[in-house]
Amino acid sequence: MKKKEPENILIVKLSAIGDVIHTLPFLEAIRDRFPGARIDWVLEEECSPIVKGHPALDRVLVSRRKDWQARFIGVRRAARVGREVKSFIAELRARRYDLVVDLQGLFKSAVLTALARGQRKIGPSGGRECSRLALGEPAVPVDTEGHAVERYLQVAGALGARTTGWKGGIPVAPEDEAMVDGMIRGLNLKPGRLAAINPMARWDSKLWDEDKFAVLADGMSRDLGLDVVLTGGASDRRCLERIRSMSSTKPVNLAGETTIKQLSCLYRRCALVVSTDTGPMHVAAASGRPVVALFGPTAPWRTGPYGPNHRVVRKDMECSPCFRKHCPHVRCMKSITPEEVLEAVEEVLAENGDGHAQKNNKKNYHEGHEEKQKSTKKR
Questions:
Q1: Whole-angstrom distance between the N-terminal and C-terminal Cα of the chain?
Q2: Distance, CA of 248 to CA of 251 (rounded, Å)
Q3: CB distance 125 to 282 below 8 Å
Q4: All structural domains of the chain
Q5: What is the rounded distance in angstroms from the CA atom of residue 131 to the CA atom of residue 113?
Q6: How many CB atoms lie within 10 A of CB 85?
Q7: Residue by residue, what is the 3-state secondary structure of 72-106?
Q8: DSSP-derived secondary structure letter, 55
Q9: DSSP characters for 295-310?
Q10: What is the DSSP track for 141-209?
């Protein structure tokens, strides 16, 4: 007897931005495999804009876990939070799913997987924090050292889906496109010569020196003829302003000026994006733009920018990857030089048909670098 195809599917992938973006090819593969199924996705509030409006989804369930935890103080607030949590759980359990897929593999996702009403509950191998206990069958074997996108697609393959050829793009609205185009015009930036630098990261160990970003921005602008913008969240504005103040070419500070989808629109208009290992790096890769990524404590073969035309700048050290959020020396990041990153930028531009990049004036770059070092020492 032919096995009945699932008609109702729930994806459990709560966070973070990069992880959610890595799940988009899985969503496309599952929609292609089960074209008539209803597909819902439960995720946390911060990441929900990434998938809202996706044509492959029927419903987005938003968990406000972090907000609930922050507000759970005092009797009155606790009661209100309790009602909100109860309402969310009722919404989660309102539909009975034929298939629940936990791609997070953590305690927080296991709780929701257990609460969801599902006939089958599956997930990939490598789950942590006892998350396997919420699954109804053995974990799907995946290559735990492979890239996250490929691990999730291996789960899709176990369900009979095609595992190659998926774009995993972030859906954007026409108003987002129009807003970004207007912003570019208003700042007198050249769309054909636009490049972005995203200097921030949530882990201290992933950060690169601010003065090096300033030197890099100057090299990209002066030697490669690029209009450079700095991207980040609203809380990053001061840091990006410090980088801008140290730069002689004064890149545009766009911290907090875009939503996630508008950031994707902005990156689509860039020749390339330079970034630390953080969410916007994955936004850029999912937007189809080449990325030059700076890696230190983490493994780019597992969570690097996915797809062709990217470059990872990384030092091969015995202690890397250590996956530590804090490090007393951070040699893996500090040993990366602006020259190395600029060379990677030049190579990426040249490979993507940018003849101007092949005319990089290294003499001017080194002179600018030396001048910047002198200025820094004086301060």
A1: 78
A2: 9
A3: no
A4: 8-158 (3.40.50.2000), 175-378 (3.40.50.2000)
A5: 9
A6: 15
A7: CCCHHHHHHHHHHHHHHHHHHHCCEEEEEEECCCC
A8: T
A9: ESSS-HHHHS--SSS-
A10: P--TTS-HHHHHHHHHHHTT---SS---PPP--HHHHHHHHHHHHHTT--GGGEEEEE---SSGGG---
Q: How many CB atoms lie within 10 A of CB 345?
A: 28
118-133 as b/e: b if 16+ CB within 10 A? beebbbbbebeeebbe
Among all chains, which residue has been given the structure tokens 């916007």? 280
pLDDT mean across residues, the chain: 92
- Please list the residues that pair with 294 across neighbouring strands: 276, 313
d(CA 23, CA 355): 35
SS3 67: helix
Please give the model's pTM, rounded to 2 decimal places.
0.90
Exposed e or buried b for every residue in 238-251, given b needs 16+ CB within 10 A?
ebbebbbebbebeb
Q: For the chain, how many residues are written?
A: 379
Q: What is the per-residue pLDDT across 71-83, written as a single tens digit (0 to 9) for each?
A: 876 656 788 899 9
Cα distance between residue 188 and residue 183, in whole Å? 9
Say if residues 338 and 365 touch (Cβ distance below 8 Å): no
Q: What is the pLDDT of residues 264-304, one digit of tens each?
A: 999 999 999 999 999 999 999 999 999 999 999 999 999 99
Helix (H, G, I), strand (E, B) or coil at 259: coil
pLDDT at 1 > cutoff 80: no
Token pair for 72: 């759970």
Q: Tokens at residue 135, please?
A: 């699954």
Alpha-carbon radius of gyration of the chain = 22
Query: Do 232 and 240 form a contact (C-beta atoms < 8 A)?
Result: yes
Helices (H) and strands (E) in the chain, counts: 15, 11
Q: How confident is the model at residue 338 (pLDDT cuts 50, 70, 90)?
A: very high
Two structure tokens written together for 170: 């972030």
Predicted local confidence at residue 74, as pLDDT = 61
